[in-house]
Amino acid sequence: MALSPREILRRIRGIKSTQQITRAMQMVAAVKLARIRSLAENSRPYVNRQETLMRAFRTSAYAVDHPVFNPAKGNRLLLLVITSDRGLCGTFNLNIINAVIGYLEANRGKQISIVAVGKKGYDALTHRGYAIERFLPVPWGEALTRELQVVNSFLTENFNTQKIDEVHIYYTRFVNVLRHVPTLTKLLPLEPLSKEEQEHLIKGEIDFIMEPSFADIALSLVPQYIEMQLRHCLIESGTSEQAARMVAMQNATDNSRDLIKDLTLRFNKARQANITRELIDIIGGVEALKG
Known about the structure:
alpha/beta, 5-stranded mixed beta sheet, 5 strands, 14% strand
């Protein structure tokens, strides 16, 4: 059914209002992306070096009997899933949720406990019947450090008391504005360095002279390592979210512009058809009067 010119104008006004919202959301996401992207890119060298150092401790001959440095002996696994609290960010949440579900289906034989950070992941996983042991909204700003300490204490307590054997994190790694990769990383226990990594790191056997002792250093560095890894995964995921939202809102704005052009063309055609019809009626009336 053809729309009247009045209905077309009403649609154009509605789409223009939506376009203003999507353009504003695009600009806000771009500002947030510029700020959080620098955090992600600047923290990567430190996080990678810290992980290498901890794994070097694990490989060292001075390694002591500490849960973080011992190999896993069971199949009890805790999976930390990081998504977002809000939508309107394209396929960001869908990609990570599908990756997590695929991982859970492939590891049915393991006892997996799920900790969901982000409302979208929590809703999707509970809707599919997965039990969530703990849920946290995505922390940011002043709440970030406080919530990280809570999660750190929760993971450390469960791991040190041997309630779980491994801790994995599923998050979205930021590559560039158009590419965000769902990534699975093993947080605990630490893996030893391979021979190739050892040769690349120090060109030989790893050895340390430490003061006061390895155990004291481990007890000091392990909580910092866990918290920094959690922080970095959250920052990477947040960067990917803002990039995905910026692109999605830009696409929505462009689609609105194209739709407005199409409706404007239809409005002009409908108005021209009405004018032509009125002219025909006038001309017909004049000819009838002449007759």
